Each structure stands twice: as C-alpha cells, then as structure tokens.
Give the backbone structure.
Amino acid sequence: MENIIYIAIFVLGTAYFLKRALYYTHMFQLNSYRYARFFRFIKSNIQKILSLKNSIFIGLILLLSILGIHLGVVFMLAIRLIYDVKTKQQTKKPLAYTARVKRMISVQVILYSGLVILMYQFNADLLIFATIIFMSLPILLVANMVLIPWEKMMKNYYYKDAKKRLSEHSTLKIIGITGSYGKTSTKFILEKILSKEFNTLVTPHSYNTLLGVIITIRNMLRRSHEVFVVEMGAKQKGDIEEICRLVNPDYGIITAVGPQHLETFGSVDTVIDTKFELAQSVASKGICYVNGDNKNVRIGIERYSNPQYVTYGSDEDNQVVIRHIRQDASGSEFEVGINHQMYRFQTRLLGDHNMLNIAGAVAIAIELGVPYEKIYAGIKELKPVEHRLELKAQGDYFILDDAFNSNPTGAKSALDVLARFENGRHIIMTPGMIELGAMDDELHIAFGQQIAEVCDEVILIGEKKTKSIVAGLQAKNYPMDQVHICQTVFEGFNKIRELVQTGDVVLIENDLPDNFDE
C-alpha cells in the first residue's frame, strides 16, 4: 500500500510540476524570453503567486510531508489539480510550441527528473520531493541559461542565412515600417495597394521582431518577389537598428511616436530616438515618409535632419495632405493631395488615424509608380485588420472591435468613430492601456474624460488597473450607476449581453495580454 501511495505522489506531483512549468514557459514566451521583462512580470504578479490560496496549499503539502501523512499529500495534490482544471481561464494568446519552447520544456523535464533520481539515490524523504514539486520557476530559469549558448549559435546561423538570401535578391525594394501605433495597419494597406502592381511580400501577423523578420525571409521570400514590406517593432533602443542592419531598407514609414512601452523605453524621448533609427537607415539611399501631424515625429525630424522626409497628414503644411474626410457605418470617403494633385478614395476602414495610414501608403505607392486606378482599387478593397476598428454586426447590435494594442491616440480615434453612430446607445468595454510608465494615471484620467463625452454605458475590466479611468469619469460627473467593473474580459462580455439593446454600438477598446496583471 505504501508503494502505491508513493507512486501516486510521484505521478500527481510530476503532473503539478509540469502544469506550473508550462505556465511559466508561457509567460516567459510572452515576455520575449527576456529576463528583465519576465522578472518585471513576476514582481507585478507576486501577490498572485504568493496568494493566500497558494500559500496554504504549499504549506499543507510541506506540513503533511514532515508529519509523514502521505495519503494526505496525495489528497491535496489531487484536489489542487482538479481545482486548477475546473477554474482554468481561457487564454487570449496560447503558448506557441516553437522549437525553442520544445527545447526549454525538454531541458526542464531533464532537470526535474535528475533531481528526482538524486532524491531516490540518496534515500531522501518525502519532504525533499515535495519541495522539488514547487521548483518550476527556478528550473525554468536554469533551463534557459543552459540553452543560451545554443540559442545564440542558432540565432547567428539564421541571421547569416537570411542576410545571404537578401544579398542574392539585388532588385528587391524593401520598405520598413515602424511607429508606436499604426504600423501593422499600414503594412496591410501597403500590401493591398502594391500587390496591384508588384509581387509583394509582407511580414505576416505580428512578425515585427528581428527573429520574426528572419523567419519571414527564410521561409517565405522568393526570387519572384519585387517588394518586401517589413514591419519593425521595438521594446527598447536599438531594436529597429538591429532589423535595419539585416534588411537595409530603401524606404521607411514612421506612422507615429507616442507614449507606448514606456516601462521599457523609460521616456518618449527614447521612443523618438528608437523609431528614427529607421530614418537614419534609409538616409543614404531613400525617402522616409512620416506622419507630420504627430508632434513627436516633428521633434524627430528636427533631431535627425539628414534623411529626405516626406510628411503626410491633415495639417496643410504637410507635403501629402488628407482632406474632406466623410465617414459613416459603410466606411469612409476622403481625398489625398500630392504634388498639387488631388486623388479621391473610398474605403471600408473607419477612423481618422486609418486615413493617415492610407495617405502614407499612397505616397509610397505613387513614388514607386503604381497607377492611380490600381491604388484606388486597392484601397476600395481594403478590409479592417482583425481587432483594429473592425465593425461587426452581432444580431441586432454592432461591435466596434478595437481590441488590439490600444494607445492614447488610437483610443481617442476609436471614441470619435463611436460618436459618429447616431442610432442606438454607445457602450465601451476596456481594461485600459498598458506600458505607459509614469504617464499612466494622467493618460487614463484623460481617457476616462473622453469616454464620459461619448458613452452611455461603461464596462471596465479589472478594478486595480481602471481606477484612473474612473477618476476621469468622475471628473466629468459621469453617472456611476452606468459604470460596471468586471474582473475578466469574459465577465465583461456577459455584462454586454445583459446591457445591450437593439441598435446599440459596443466599442471593445484593448484586450490585455495574458501576462499582464489586471
């Protein structure tokens, strides 16, 4: 009987270890495998990790081990595993089982198995095994350290291979796109327009890191491609420069510079320097198209004056000017003025910021010689990028889905679009914005004030994160009985179904990642 109990403890303990190991591996992946960002996640979630529930569970396991109540250990492990399965929350971005993740998990299993074997080799008691069960976090960190030399070697090999493939494609035109927001939308707009004239490749989905660009080049680039559009993301200074050294872009687009990722950048000033690494890269041979309406972009132009710039925006002092924007539920109509000539366009996209993105894409397309008729056709065929001001009919009401990567400018634009719907009530569901650093409270108070001007019902996700939004609502004397605070986005959707009426429009503004502490 005793042997059966020990086997049960081993099986259940191993299952619990693997469950926690997969969780921390998932969070490590969501933090780009970077120790600094992962440790910030651990620090911000330490109250969850050391919650009363977890502390009692760990304490009871260790106490029962010390007292030799082995059957009690089996019971506690089984109860916890059943509880975790039944209460498991749906993840927004599941763990991607990449080759790197598989290597990490394999090394963690080897390290765990080695500790268990040592325990039995030295006839260690149950207490030591019970302690090993809770070592998933340190084992993850050790596993990654063990793999660092291998990962560096593989990264260097893949980088050189991608560089070689590009060098063999001398006629390829490369366009780099970066910005605090708008870069993904602009990338897909460019793809639709340029594909009317050229065989065009764009980095897929959110493949905007150096590794993502390398994967795109190695797996997707063909000799038949004529244009390569590269989205360039950044979380710290030097990230854009690193991608530019690989692809050596001929043209650049800087869509905007704002208070995004300030927890890693530290200041907007550093964000400007980082985004303009793209401008510096194209300075010797091409043109950098920039959002001239953005004040931080204007600062960057003054700071880095050597590239050739073309500014676009609604302000009349831009070289490419957007005029006469008209929007309704069916889409938008507008004009773009370039070189004293006006071009009229229609699109299903909504939001003034999308008109900005289109204007930048139009300017490059004209520079590359795409005829107006093809540009017009491409823009008319545009569909909203998923989760970026995507209007969806939901039975007898509408959802305006702007759930991807919210920022202060984009959130204001989304509210402006919501305000244009004249029929039905306006409802917003939001958890707020992330990585705003020292400006977090200020920007969320302003967001709350903007919401108060537009929305009839407000659903906030996470009480802790949304306090500043509530403060902004209160500053505008917004009725608090129309403010509903939910703990998860899934509870939020239940609240929408409870509140919504025929003809209402519901704005979903941002959807926090799984590794964010709400």
In short: The two ends are 46 Å apart (CA to CA). Residues 514-518 have pLDDT under 50 and may be disordered. The first helix runs from residue 2 to 30. Residues 2-150 form one domain.
